[in-house]
Amino acid sequence: MFEKVLIANRGEIALRIHRACHDMGIKTVAVHSTADANAMNVRLADESVCIGPPPARGSYLNIPSILSAAAITGADAIHPGIGFLSENADFAEVVLEHGFAFIGPKPEHIRVMGDKVRAKMAAKELGIPTVPGSEGALRDAAEAIRAAREIGYPVLLKAVSGGGGRGMKLARNEADLKTLLPLAQAEAQAAFNDSSVYMERFLDRPRHIEIQLLGDGRGGVVHLGERDCSLQRHHQKVLEETSSPGLDAAARERITGIAVKALEKLGYQSAGTLEFLYQDGEFYFIEMNTRLQVEHPISEMISGIDLVREQLRIAAGAPLGYRQSDIQLRGHAIECRINAESPEDFRPSPGRVSDYHAPGGPGIRVDSALYQGYEVPPYYDSLIAKLIVYGGDRDECLMRLRRAMEEYAIGGIETTIPLHQRLLDASDFRRGDYDIGWLERFLGHGA
């Protein structure tokens, strides 16, 4: 096992990884920007190294600085966390080339799954159902028009190198397509330095279902069930739950079986997630995330498996050590993403946390690096906490979630806690009757 792990990330996920390492007797190195000098993960790590100024490009995306920090502290492995360099195949390769272990998938798997077109082609080869769409990146408007006529309107334009909804445009007819194609390409170029876009059929009211998987790189693969991530705003997840209230046992068994077989064939290593749209009883592959997910804790809650611990074990060369039949998925779990944002218009709300009290009691877990007096910086993602709640069934989980929301106090900044309280009062959500467009409709109409 590793002796010292450098955590190439910040905030709650860096603290989450630090805790898993310490539970295993592994020392940690925190790297940080000047803006994060007083962050909780930096305070608790065994060692810390400042790697640059607040902008991520000069710090958390600065590969030479991260490698230098690993070298001078004597780290033998690097965990990329979530976001930043976590799905950068070049980073994974250079980490390995410099003699460090990379706590994540093989670079070739990151590379193929990071390109949306190549990922879709790979998915087809692995027997995963895909959304009807263009064969590859669209070369020009004429090709886009031909593809749309074959697929049928409405169609969705998506960035080949994209994520988070950037470069994504919905065209309901040919006139829309002619107008939106160059806009999608321009957005993709600005966000990802790659103007390539592709096309998929637009599904009007699907659910967003993802399967959590673990592979040891030796053919051993297990799943930890599915997560329903349909509650989204501007293609950003707001709340996730497991199991999905929209799947029955037969659908669940079908898609988890497909996912496990696909990753067995791929020889996948580490934690990974296959994401699908689900509508009218059919699943359609969206993408694969070759990293830990923000919402991984709810899968841990129902399975009892520490995903970060497993990532560390697998990266150190250990096999899974258990089979699918050994995993018992019990109860229900929900994660609410708490952002430093206005709950009304979602403007970022950085600043000093004047008061802080986290909820507790049975079934409550809070993943956060906040503390009273902490200064939330304006330079990074606004996610500041994850409230994870477990119950024996969905009703108990919802009751505990309501209590936890009433207890949670964060002063000095605005947060999205009131939004989640509104969701708990919505009858559609309480029934589990929602899709990926529901939250936008709810917010737009105040229903």
CATH class of the largest domain: Alpha Beta
Counted by DSSP, the helix tally is 15
Look up the CATH topology of the largest domain. D-amino Acid Aminotransferase, Chain A, domain 1
Strand content: 25-35%
Mean pLDDT comes to 95
The CATH architecture of the largest domain: 2-Layer Sandwich
* Portion of residues within helices: 25-40%
Question: How many β strands by DSSP?
Answer: 20
Described by the principal axes of the CA atoms, the overall outline is globular
Q: Flag low-confidence runs.
A: none
User: Structural class per helix/strand content?
Assistant: alpha+beta
Q: What is the end-to-end distance?
A: 53 Å
Number of domains: 3
Quaternary structure classification: single chain
Radius of gyration: 21 Å
Descriptive tags:
Dna Ligase, domain 1, single chain, 3 domains, 15 helices, globular, 447 residues, 35% helix, D-amino Acid Aminotransferase, Chain A, domain 1, Rossmann fold
Which helices and strands occur, and which strands form pairs?
Blueprint: E1 4-7, H1 11-23, E2 27-33, H2 40-44, E3 47-52, H3 63-73, E4 77-79, H4 89-97, E5 101-102, H5 107-114, H6 116-125, H7 141-151, E6 155-159, E7 169-171, H8 174-192, E8 197-201, E9 207-216, E10 221-233, E11 236-242, H9 249-266, E12 269-279, E13 282-289, H10 296-303, H11 307-315, E14 332-339, E15 351-352, E16 355-357, E17 364-368, E18 375-376, E19 383-391, H12 394-407, E20 409-411, H13 417-425, H14 427-431, H15 438-445
Parallel strand pairs: 1-2, 1-4, 2-3, 4-5
Antiparallel strand pairs: 6-7, 6-8, 9-10, 9-12, 10-11, 11-14, 12-13, 14-19, 15-18, 16-20, 17-19
